[in-house]
Amino acid sequence: GRQSASQRLCAMACRLLRNIRVPRRAARGWTRAFSAQKPPGEGRDSEIRVDASGLLQPTPPLMDFEFPEYMNPLAQHLYEMIAVTGSSLTIAEYMNFCLLHPLYGYYTTKPTVLGRGGDFVTAPELTSIFSELVCIWCIGLWQLQGDPKAIRLVEMGPGKGTLMRDALRAAEVLPAFHDAVRSGGVHLVEASPTLRRKQCETLLEEFGGRVIYAEGRNEGSGEGGAAAEASTDPTASKELPAALELDNGIRVTWYRDPLRVPEGPMYFIGHELLDALPVHQLIRVNDSWRERLVEPNIGDAVEFRASVIKRPGGLSEAPEAPADRMPGPDEDQFRVVAGEHPTEGLTAILDIPESELRPGLVVEVCPAALKLAQDIAKRIAESGGAAILIDYGGEGLPRESLRGFADNREVSWLKSPGECDMTADVDFSAVKRAVGEVPGVAAVGCVSQAAFLGAMGIRERAMALMNQEGFSDEDKEKLYQVFIRLVGDDQMGQKYKVMGIVP
Ligand code: SAH
To answer: Which N-terminal residues, if any, form the signal peptide (predicted)?
Structure first.
């Protein structure tokens, strides 16, 4: 029969305890309290093994096996966590671990994921024109609002910092706007320490300046020898940059939470941000919604998954998985199942017409994106500013779209957690509904990226570049290819959408 959650917890705790090694000095006290032994067969003095197996009488552990070598640390960690808590992960939880786990997350540990040669290429990495046009959109709104003297230029999820670098360069053409940014500062919201360092590096390289570290240990460039060197290479220090004083007078400050950006008119940029926020998936079973969950792919995986997911209505017949068959090196380490009970909370934010409901329908919801959009909208309603959100997705039914990317190819996100990008289409209708609940702001769009860039003058800008002196035929050809990629119908032009939040 099935073990209860507490039995499983107990079994797992025992297994973990058995394997704890403590340094000899720390263990001396324990030696008296429990009967500690040297690990059998190991003559080393430096550690002893505490045999805690006598403390509890465990039921047979759910996962009394050695993890296979090919299973990465995050997969092992999640297997253990699921066993310890006795409950599967929501897809949103799984996605959060995969992307942002402090030690094993995709964004937290892999600084090279973006750009050519990385796992995916984003528009700002293709050409500076994209970021220039985003900057011009901000300038337009700033002018419409009577050119406030100090504004906060905010970007969330800045990746390598490329967009902000090119936008700040573009801002130099309008000194009054540049001054306003200088007065209010640039504010970057980033969850990944690795990418924060990368952003710091990108901006320093372009504009020069000095890094400010958290605990007031500031290192200046210009004056002073060794310290100056350290400051121009943010990767050299273990400490995380807290801010940056650029030589152009602009101060850049980092945050994890967008609500920490100080008051004042805020011009907010989110490019390929919302698609990285964790989604939940719900599946229609009989007349209710059940949340889809992620669990270890132990046992008779293929049939289990296929029948559970694909057969409408038949979810309770899931076979009990034998605990002895681990997924092989090329198989998914995890699988998706439907929760046993109807889920209520998330369905409140769904807006699916009755006529669309049918057994087996899978939809996605992203409460994190909705909350973020509302938070930004409230700020804009209070203090002015605007937000531009660019992502793939659309306004239709929020169908299942979560997918994994590595090496510019789609891969299974259930295979090796933390080793691929995970991304889901943005449900712009839901984002607009969320913004609509905030008085004093309006959601505009969404429009296609092609329409947006066209309206912002991408053709004119590209032509101007092409006619520049020293622009070779080869450069022209390259620029043309990039242009097509950004606005082409079957390329980014229609897939990507742009929406704004304005007062
Ligand atoms: N805008 C960049 C990068 C897109 S990748 C570009 O277009 O090239 C997504 C970015 O969002 C990464 O920088 C990632 O670390 C960041 N991110 C993901 N989840 C986040 C969260 N919850 N809070 C802040 N940043 C997040």
So the answer is: none
Closest CA to ligand 1's atom 23: 191
Whole-prediction pTM: 0.81
Q: Which of helix, strand or coil describes residue 127?
A: coil
CA torsion through residues 286, 289, 290, 294, sign: positive
Give 496's contacts (C-beta < 8 A, 6+ positions apart): 123, 390, 391, 392, 448, 449
Check if the beta carbon of residue 244 is closer than 8 Å to that of residue 204: yes
* 372: in domain: yes
CA of 112 to the centre of ligand 1 (A): 13
Listed residue (264, 251, 268) closest to 212, CA to CA: 251
Are 264 and 383 in contact, with CB atoms under 8 Å apart?
A: yes
**Ligand 1 proximal residues by C-beta, below 6 Å:** 107, 114, 122, 124-125, 156-159, 189-192, 195, 271-273, 276-277
Give pLDDT tens digits for 64-93.
Answer: 557 888 999 999 999 888 877 777 889 999
**Cα–Cα distance between 444 and 363 in angstroms, integer?**
24
Residues 440 and 412 in one domain: yes
Which of residues 365, 390, 417 is at a domain's end?
365
Each residue's pLDDT tens digit, 249-298 = 999 999 999 999 999 999 999 999 999 999 999 999 888 898 898 988 88
Q: Give the span between the Cα atoms of 376 and 86, in whole angstroms.
A: 37
